[in-house]
Design brief:
alpha+beta, Killer Toxin P4, Chain A, Transferase(Phosphotransferase), domain 1, 5-stranded antiparallel beta sheet, 29 helices, about 40% helix, globular, kinase, repeat, glycoprotein
Length: about 1150
């Protein structure tokens, strides 16, 4: 770690804050809302007009019961259209978990429509609806067991499972129909069988016993499977080797006491730790940074950047320099130098005569000089550059801003990726990082934009957009303020589905187009659509994209839907209004010879050494900021746990379309598919859009919660909307207004609509004759109209009625759908307010408009912000808390200062860089006293310093001033491969999987360097060739591989294939030997291709060859005995090879 690095306090702060936030907010356990099975009736409903309202009414009655008791039954209607319902949560779920599980159940069960009944089993609750009274049933023909996929052959597990099932059958009927059992496996530490059994509360004890006996008989048939569920008419049972049970609830008083104690201890320890870190940080910066060589230059650089007229933060500059200087590839732009001493900060790149790709593909005249062959080479070069960043650099690097203007072209029109100001890097074993959103409109992956979780698939999406732009000559991005236009991704998808792609090809490509070229272009379009699929997991990696491009005979998978909602239709959250947090630029065709980005940084685990924006890293200000932060946290920890507000899930109005759906078989699956996509988005952002299908049977959906609802309240409100909206079937569209949310579905894209003939106002029943109330209501509504467009489309207001002693007030709320831009939102609210205010002097009114919702009332219907209640912390307690945190922080700072000073003095006495000195001493004391020529030394330094790859050793430094020339490499604890494969003891630790990974890594390193395998062949080759010819290669296998007794034939075949590839590499004729990229394909092909037969290797190797005169000179050539190298840091003794 660098001396003076702020990494320690920053990481410590992050961990502590995360722990505290998790401690404070983790009031919900696991609701286990995963669907186990949904079973629908086989009889169609009798009358849609009557059945659907009855079903919705039943769900609403049960919903009220579930919130208080975790169980509900209801009946609405009579005759064949009646609806009887039952819902119950399992006994280990809290009420909050139960409400969440039920919300999931009631949104899924409508999938059984138009059948007249169905039941759904979730892992945490159950729900059933029929057109008859079924409450006394405990068995039926739909009873079944669902077994898991994994097996446990241990007989002890089966015996323990039977024991757990028997205990559940015995105890549950006498315990309210519920039992949870854990049976430890004898002789196996920390392993148990976990079981849950639950009868529905409407059954009596004997029916419950009978149901559980039937369930146990069916579930035990799943053994030896590790997991199983019994889904019976009157009960549910599940066993597993994984603990899926929630902890049983304790008394509220004891739980509150425990939480208070834990919070107090954790917060005290947290503040103390942060104090220690602050002390270390302050002393570290004060005494070490000032002694650093060049520290004044760094300070001067930061000042110059901050005072620059360009809106360019120092962190971007450092980030780009650090990342681009750590990589080296033919398709990445090369950094020549940088300057920060003048009025502007400059990065000096190599000169690229043709500037950027966008100058050609978006210009009709210049585009003529870029035929398909050249465009294809540019595409391949870009893919190779991205594949290197994602998979072959030391750290995984994500560019975050791949677009045509950032793909530069040299004089030979070869692609080079530029502008690494937004790039982020992290370790190879990290799946993703969470970061603030940054990039260019039109190129951002939907999952990154929605959740801020960054993976390499975000670059894949951006590249897919660029690929489609390259083929069509159309630019994807548009101004945020402009009208909504379909993106190039959606346009390409529709034409691809219709088989009319040629209509949108760049006309410059069709000048010389023949059949084979058109097929290749269509294949590239298909790859672009695979890269821009909505699901990130379905997008291919860049190495897979390269394989698809090069292997033109390989069949491509069919692409799935791209995202039907891109970032141009989404309003950013509150923080996005702050340019320091989120800054997106419109795509432009600016040809930056030196790319000078103005994007702002986001915190991530980047390789950048610069501090995150917004955190002043001077020691004193750092201490003040951390103190303030932890004082606030201490106050928050004293507050009572916030209770759930009102989800406001009362239905205001349902409006159905006027046209019947076109084809039920196609429309219904599309409708529920879109509903499911919207549901997944609602849970994370309170807003969702989706589209499924094409043509008349397509289904496009939008749902949004109002801005004052919490995520939990939003889920509950959305479940109500999703339950109600299907009553519009068989019409092909509809919208439902709930007091807390909105939902709409149509068979066309409506996301930019803000007005329509259905717009209406609904007035209340009570009258307020007080003119002061009317004036207050108008003022509240006008406040909402003025504020909401600039506040993500949401505003709420409270205006006190003048002249009243009881502080009565007028309350108002306005919400635009996030798919609208600011101007459309303002127009919608103005029309809504005009229609709604016509309700005055009535005390309440609502405006239900196409693009927005408004409401005013004399009753406070708004959800409140969290406040300190009278039962929370008192003023004295808050003061004591703050003062105690200050004292603990000061004590921690003193401890940190002492620790740092003590360690610093010790290290200074011992001397710095002890590892380097010890390493040098080891080399000097070694017996390797070779005469190493200067030419070899310089050659190795030049070669290794000019490359950067995860499979090439990294040079840290060199020395030629002493008696020996030294190269200092990174420390590799396992030394070299020969220590393992040529040593029978060590080789046991190297099984085949590890050896195969080593082979792959070596091939990747050689492939990057462009080095072909040389002809250095040992006498082992002769023996291997003979055994290969005789089919007895297995006799030469390393015994430590244990392949003779290996039961997996696939592994043995893989070893033989590797031998075959090895013989292809050492063929006598160089032209027959495969390239390293070809070897990589041979090794990693998912479907093994037939390898060509190898020709004879050279039967004369170097050991039988006479050396020339220069080689006979012992000063020029020396050899060492022994098969294994002993270099701690590889210090080659061989002369020119």
């Amino acid at each position: 770690m660098k001396t003076g690095s702020p990494l320690v306090p920053r990481c410590g702060l992050l961990i502590i804050i995360s722990s505290l936030l998790l401690l404070e907010t983790s009031t919900v356990a696991d609701p286990r809302s995963q669907t186990a099975k949904i079973l629908c009736s086989t009889v169609l409903e009798h009358n849609t007009t009557a059945f659907v309202p009855n079903f919705v009414g039943t769900m609403q009655v049960i919903s009220d019961q579930m919130r208080t008791g975790g169980f509900g039954v209801a009946r609405v209607g009579k005759g064949p259209d009646a609806n009887y319902g039952l819902a119950q949560c399992y006994g280990d779920l809290s009420l909050m978990d139960c409400v969440l599980c039920y919300a999931e159940a009631r949104t899924v069960l409508p999938q059984c429509f138009p059948f007249n009944g169905g039941r759904i089993f979730l892992d945490g609750c159950f729900m059933r609806a029929e057109n008859y009274s079924f409450y006394e049933e405990f068995s039926g023909p739909l009873d079944r067991a669902v077994c898991g996929n994994n097996s446990i052959t241990n007989s002890v597990y089966g015996q323990s499972t039977r024991q757990a099932v028997a205990r559940a059958v015995e105890t549950a009927p006498n315990n309210g129909g519920y039992a949870r059992i854990q049976v430890a496996l004898p002789g196996t530490p920390n392993a148990s069988v976990y079981l849950l059994a639950q009868c529905w509360r409407n059954l009596n004890r004997s029916s419950c016993t009978s149901c559980l006996q039937n369930a146990s008989a069916s579930i035990l048939k799943c053994l030896p499977r590790s997991e199983a569920r019994a889904l019976n008419t009157g009960c549910f049972m599940r066993y597993s080797n994984v603990d899926f049970l929630n902890a049983e609830a304790q008394a509220a008083r004891s739980r509150g006491t425990i939480v208070a104690i834990v919070v107090s201890l954790v917060s005290s320890v947290a503040v103390l730790v942060v104090g220690v870190l602050i002390g270390i940080y302050i002393w570290n910066n004060r005494y070490v940074n000032n002694k650093r060589r060049g520290s004044n230059d760094v300070n001067k650089m930061a000042k110059t950047l901050n005072n620059s007229s360009l809106n360019f933060k120092a962190a971007d500059f450092y980030n780009e320099v650090n990342i681009i200087s750590s990589v080296e590839h033919k398709n990445l732009v090369r950094l020549l130098g940088c300057s920060c001493s003048g009025p502007e900060s400059l990065l000096v790149y190599e000169f690229l005569a043709n500037r950027s790709l966008d100058r050609f593909i978006f210009d009709g005249e210049r585009g003529k000089s870029l035929n398909w062959e050249k465009r294809f080479e540019i595409i391949v070069g870009t893919v190779e550059g991205l594949a290197y960043l994602h998979e072959n650099s030391k750290n995984k690097i994500i560019h975050r801003d791949i677009k045509a203007s950032n793909i530069l072209l040299d004089s030979r029109l070869r692609a080079k990726i530029a502008d690494f100001g937004l790039a982020r890097s992290f370790e190879e074993d990290v799946s993703h990082i969470s970061t603030a959103i940054a990039g260019t409109l039109g190129y951002l992956a939907p999952e990154y934009l929605a959740h801020g979780q960054l993976t390499e698939k975000a670059d894949v999406y951006s590249f897919g957009v660029v690929l489609l732009e390259t083929v069509t000559g159309r630019q994807n991005s548009r101004s945020k303020a402009s009208d909504y236009l379909e993106s190039i991704v959606l346009i390409a998808w529709k034409h691809f589905q219709a088989g009319t792609m040629e209509r949108i090809y760049d006309p410059n490509l069709m000048v010389e187009g023949d059949g084979s070229m058109k097929e290749e272009i269509l294949r590239v379009v298909q790859i672009g659509l695979l890269c821009t699929q909505e699901s990130a997991s379905l997008r291919p990696t860049m190495s897979k994209v390269l394989q698809m491009l090069m292997k033109k005979e390989e069949k491509l998978p069919a692409p799935t839907n791209p995202p039907f909602m891109d970032e141009r239709t989404m309003e950013l959250n509150d923080t996005s209004e702050d340019p320091s947090y989120f800054n997106m630029t419109e795509a432009s065709s600016s040809a930056a010879t030196v790319t000078h980005s103005s994007f702002h940084p986001s915190s991530s685990s980047s390789s950048s050494s610069s501090p995150p924006y917004g955190l002043n890293t001077t020691p004193e200000s750092m201490a003040i900021q951390l103190y303030v932060l932890f004082s606030v946290l201490s106050i928050l920890l004293l507050l009572p746990t916030s209770s759930m507000g009102k989800p406001r899930d009362q239905t205001v109005k349902v409006m159905c379309g006027k046209e019947l759906e076109h084809n039920t078989t196609a429309y219904v699956p599309n409708f529920f598919g879109s509903m499911e996509k919207v549901r997944q988005q609602i849970r994370t952002s309170g807003f969702g859009t989706a589209g499924t299908g094409i043509g008349l049977d397509a289904s496009y959906g939008l749902a949004q919660c109002h801005g004052d609802l919490s995520p939990l309240e939003c889920v509950l409100c959305h479940s109500q909307a999703r339950t109600v909206l299907p009553q519009c079937f068989p019409f092909n569209g509809g919208r439902t207004f709930i007091d807390g949310c909105f939902m709409r579905f149509e068979n066309y894209i409506f996301f930019d609509e803000y007005k329509g003939p259905e717009d209406t106002a609904i007035c209340g029943n009570l009258t307020q004759n007080d003119p002061n109330y009317r004036q207050a209501a108008k003022e509240a509504v006008m406040q909402v109209v003025n504020v909401a467009p600039g506040n993500r489309g949401f505003a709420k207001a409270r205006v006190t009625v003048a002249g009243r002693a009881n502080e009565s007030a007028a309350y108002a709320l306005g919400q635009c759908w996030r798919s609208l831009n600011r101007s459309s939102c303002r127009l919608c609210l103005q029309m809504a307010s005009a229609s709604m205010l016509s309700c005055l002097p009535l005390s309440e009114g609502r405006a239900l408009n196409t693009g927005c919702f408004m409401r005013y009332s004399n009753t406070d219907f708004l959800n409140k912000d969290i406040k300190i209640s009278s039962r929370g912390a008192t003023r004295t307690e808050l003061i004591v808390s703050v003062l105690s945190s200050v004292v603990v922080l000061i004590i921690g700072g003193a401890i940190g200062a002492y620790i740092w000073k003590h360690r610093y003095i010790q290290n200074k006495r011992k001397g710095g860089s002890t590892d380097v000195k010890k390493l040098a001493k080891t080399l000097q004391d070694s017996n390797l006293n070779f005469k190493h020529r200067a030419a070899d030394f310089y050659n190795e330094v030049n070669m290794i310093s000019s490359v950067e790859h995860k499979n090439l050793v990294r040079l840290l430094g060199c020395s030629c001033s002493g008696p020996e020339s030294l190269l200092v490499y990174e420390f590799l604890p396992n030394k070299s491969l020969d220590r393992f494969i040529f040593d029978t003891k060590n080789s046991k630790a190297l099984d085949w999987d590890k050896r195969f990974n080593i082979i792959i890594g070596t091939v990747e390193g050689l492939q990057y360097n462009g080095i072909q395998v040389s002809g250095n062949i040992e006498s082992l080759v002769t023996a291997m060739w003979r055994h290969f010819q005789a089919g007895t290669v297995e006799r030469l296998f390393d015994p430590n591989l244990n392949l003779q007794n290996h039961y997996n034939k696939k592994v043995k075949d893989e070893v033989l294939r590797v031998v075959h590839i090895g013989l292809l590499c050492i063929q006598e004729i160089p032209s027959l030997r495969p390239t390293m990229s070809k070897i990589m394909r041979m090794l990693t092909m998912e479907e093994e291709e037939l390898l060509p037969p190898p020709t004879k290797p050279p039967f004369m190797d170097e050991m039988t060859m006479e050396l020339d005169d220069s080689c006979k000179d012992s000063r020029y050539y020396s050899n060492t005995e022994g098969p294994s190298s002993t270099a701690t840091v590889s210090h080659s003794a061989f002369y020119p090879r």
